[in-house]
Write a structure and sequence with these properties.
Elements: E1 2-6, H1 13-24, E2 27-30, H2 31-40, H3 44-55, H4 61-72, E3 81-84, H5 90-103, E4 109-114, H6 117-127, H7 136-158, E5 163-167, H8 172-182
Helix pairs in contact: 1-8, 2-3, 4-5
Bound molecules: adenosine-5'-diphosphate (ADP).
Length: 183
């Protein structure tokens, strides 16, 4: 099973991804986590993307798609995967489709977590992970990048009939129950 977890920063994608992967026994691919790990390890990729992540802008489609392609060729993804933070632009979604068609492993559903903006900002500021992009300015920028570049991805998948809209407010367990029902 292949699932896309979709939603603005602070929507709870990472938290719900953990529940989904344990429940369905599938892998987790978070492009944000991969970039943060590369930055932490000061790899050439990490050095290249650090200022982009700090500012809340998007890493280029070429880099992201190349990274996902390489990562998903590993056998841990053979059983399926939760894609968290990818695809984030329509161009990434188109490349992703070509990638999945080659491997004959289609997307089963896109879970769109819906949370009001005030709640998103509150959550990010209080999660205290010390991420350099979790400042008020960083969050505002990520939200506007989300609206301009990422939200159109939703329509792309709506046309394919794959979108499940999920209320992302309430307890972590109640949100997960909604996801389970939708799947
Ligand atoms: P959040 O959802 O809180 O913004 P993520 O961990 O998903 O956090 O992403 C953090 C940052 O990593 C993004 O602001 C962006 O700079 C970069 N990034 C992650 N995924 C992508 C992607 N698919 N395309 C471009 N940039 C990405």
């Amino acid at each position: 099973m292949n699932i896309i977890l979709f939603g603005p920063p602070g929507a709870g994608k990472g938290t719900q991804a953990e529940y989904i992967i344990h429940h369905f026994g599938i892998a987790h691919l978070s492009t944000g986590n991969m970039f943060r790990e590369a930055i932490h390890n000061k790899t050439p990729l990490g050095i290249k993307v650090k200022t982009i992540l700090d500012s809340g802008e998007l890493v280029s489609d070429e880099i992201v798609v190349g990274l996902v392609k390489e990562e998903t060729s590993k056998s841990v993804y053979n059983n399926g995967c939760v894609f968290d933070g990818f695809p984030r632009t329509v161009s990434q979604a188109q490349s992703f489709d070509r990638m999945l068609a080659e491997k004959n492993t289609p997307i089963d559903a896109l879970i769109s977590l819906v949370v009001p903006e005030e709640e998103l900002i509150k959550r990010i500021l209080s999660r205290g992970q010390g991420r350099p992009d979790d400042t008020k300015k960083g969050i505002k920028n990520r939200l506007s990048v989300y609206q301009n570049e990422t939200e159109p991805v939703l329509n792309y998948y709506k046309k394919k009939g794959l979108v499940k809209i999920i209320d992302g407010t309430g307890s972590v367990e109640s949100i997960f129950n909604r996801i389970k029902k939708a799947l």
